[in-house]
Design goal:
The protein is mostly helical and 130 residues long. 92% of the residues lie in helices and 0% in strands.
Length: 130
Protein backbone atom coordinates (compact mmCIF):
# COMPACT_ATOMS: atom_id res chain seq x y z
CA UNK A 1 0.00 0.00 0.00
CA UNK A 2 2.87 2.37 0.73
CA UNK A 3 4.33 1.78 -2.73
CA UNK A 4 0.97 2.71 -4.30
CA UNK A 5 0.82 5.96 -2.26
CA UNK A 6 4.38 6.83 -3.26
CA UNK A 7 3.58 6.22 -6.92
CA UNK A 8 0.41 8.32 -6.63
CA UNK A 9 2.36 11.15 -4.98
CA UNK A 10 5.09 10.98 -7.62
CA UNK A 11 2.46 10.96 -10.35
CA UNK A 12 0.74 13.98 -8.79
CA UNK A 13 4.00 15.88 -8.45
CA UNK A 14 4.92 15.02 -12.01
CA UNK A 15 1.52 16.16 -13.28
CA UNK A 16 1.75 19.46 -11.37
CA UNK A 17 5.25 20.05 -12.78
CA UNK A 18 3.98 19.42 -16.32
CA UNK A 19 1.05 21.79 -15.76
CA UNK A 20 3.33 24.46 -14.32
CA UNK A 21 5.70 24.10 -17.28
CA UNK A 22 2.81 24.36 -19.74
CA UNK A 23 1.41 27.36 -17.88
CA UNK A 24 4.76 29.12 -17.94
CA UNK A 25 5.07 28.44 -21.66
CA UNK A 26 1.62 29.88 -22.31
CA UNK A 27 2.42 32.96 -20.21
CA UNK A 28 5.68 33.47 -22.09
CA UNK A 29 3.89 33.18 -25.43
CA UNK A 30 1.21 35.63 -24.28
CA UNK A 31 3.88 38.08 -23.11
CA UNK A 32 5.69 37.81 -26.44
CA UNK A 33 2.44 38.41 -28.30
CA UNK A 34 1.60 41.43 -26.10
CA UNK A 35 5.05 43.04 -26.17
CA UNK A 36 7.30 41.60 -28.87
CA UNK A 37 9.88 44.40 -28.64
CA UNK A 38 10.30 43.88 -24.91
CA UNK A 39 10.67 40.14 -25.51
CA UNK A 40 13.27 40.84 -28.20
CA UNK A 41 15.20 43.19 -25.90
CA UNK A 42 15.08 40.59 -23.14
CA UNK A 43 16.36 37.91 -25.49
CA UNK A 44 19.20 40.14 -26.68
CA UNK A 45 20.13 40.99 -23.08
CA UNK A 46 20.10 37.32 -22.12
CA UNK A 47 22.26 36.48 -25.14
CA UNK A 48 24.73 39.22 -24.25
CA UNK A 49 24.95 37.97 -20.67
CA UNK A 50 25.53 34.41 -21.82
CA UNK A 51 28.14 35.53 -24.33
CA UNK A 52 29.96 37.46 -21.62
CA UNK A 53 29.87 34.56 -19.19
CA UNK A 54 30.84 31.71 -21.49
CA UNK A 55 34.51 31.54 -22.42
CA UNK A 56 35.41 31.91 -26.08
CA UNK A 57 37.11 28.92 -27.63
CA UNK A 58 40.28 29.22 -29.70
CA UNK A 59 38.33 28.24 -32.80
CA UNK A 60 35.81 31.03 -32.19
CA UNK A 61 38.60 33.52 -31.67
CA UNK A 62 40.39 32.42 -34.84
CA UNK A 63 37.20 32.49 -36.92
CA UNK A 64 35.59 35.63 -35.49
CA UNK A 65 38.60 37.93 -35.21
CA UNK A 66 38.61 38.83 -38.95
CA UNK A 67 34.87 39.51 -38.84
CA UNK A 68 35.25 41.69 -35.74
CA UNK A 69 38.15 43.57 -37.30
CA UNK A 70 36.17 44.17 -40.50
CA UNK A 71 33.14 45.39 -38.52
CA UNK A 72 35.33 47.72 -36.47
CA UNK A 73 36.98 49.14 -39.58
CA UNK A 74 33.60 49.61 -41.27
CA UNK A 75 32.13 51.33 -38.21
CA UNK A 76 35.12 53.67 -37.94
CA UNK A 77 34.88 54.55 -41.64
CA UNK A 78 31.13 55.18 -41.35
CA UNK A 79 31.58 57.38 -38.28
CA UNK A 80 34.33 59.37 -39.98
CA UNK A 81 32.21 59.84 -43.13
CA UNK A 82 29.25 60.98 -41.04
CA UNK A 83 31.43 63.41 -39.10
CA UNK A 84 32.90 64.87 -42.29
CA UNK A 85 29.50 65.18 -43.97
CA UNK A 86 27.99 66.83 -40.89
CA UNK A 87 30.89 69.24 -40.49
CA UNK A 88 30.74 70.13 -44.17
CA UNK A 89 26.99 70.76 -44.04
CA UNK A 90 27.30 72.91 -40.91
CA UNK A 91 30.06 74.93 -42.61
CA UNK A 92 27.79 75.43 -45.65
CA UNK A 93 25.13 76.81 -43.31
CA UNK A 94 27.69 79.10 -41.68
CA UNK A 95 27.54 77.25 -38.38
CA UNK A 96 31.11 76.97 -37.20
CA UNK A 97 32.57 76.18 -33.80
CA UNK A 98 33.54 79.85 -33.36
CA UNK A 99 30.04 81.05 -34.21
CA UNK A 100 28.57 78.51 -31.83
CA UNK A 101 30.83 79.67 -29.00
CA UNK A 102 30.01 83.30 -29.81
CA UNK A 103 26.27 82.53 -29.75
CA UNK A 104 26.56 80.75 -26.40
CA UNK A 105 28.53 83.68 -24.93
CA UNK A 106 25.86 86.05 -26.18
CA UNK A 107 23.10 83.93 -24.63
CA UNK A 108 24.90 83.75 -21.26
CA UNK A 109 25.62 87.49 -21.28
CA UNK A 110 21.99 88.22 -22.15
CA UNK A 111 20.74 85.92 -19.40
CA UNK A 112 23.15 87.53 -16.93
CA UNK A 113 21.98 91.00 -17.90
CA UNK A 114 18.36 89.94 -17.63
CA UNK A 115 19.01 88.52 -14.15
CA UNK A 116 20.68 91.78 -13.06
CA UNK A 117 17.82 93.91 -14.40
CA UNK A 118 15.27 91.64 -12.74
CA UNK A 119 17.11 91.80 -9.43
CA UNK A 120 17.33 95.60 -9.61
CA UNK A 121 13.62 95.82 -10.42
CA UNK A 122 12.81 93.57 -7.48
CA UNK A 123 14.94 95.66 -5.10
CA UNK A 124 13.40 98.84 -6.45
CA UNK A 125 9.88 97.48 -6.05
CA UNK A 126 10.65 96.30 -2.51
CA UNK A 127 12.00 99.77 -1.55
CA UNK A 128 9.00 101.50 -3.09
CA UNK A 129 6.51 99.34 -1.21
CA UNK A 130 8.20 100.10 2.16
Amino acid sequence: MTDQNTQDNESGVRQRAIEAYDGAGRQANDAIDDAPLIALAGGLALGAILAAILPRSQAETRLLRPVGDKLTDSAKAAAEAAKEAGTSRLAELGLTREKGAETLRSIFEGASDAAKVSAQAAVSAARTSE
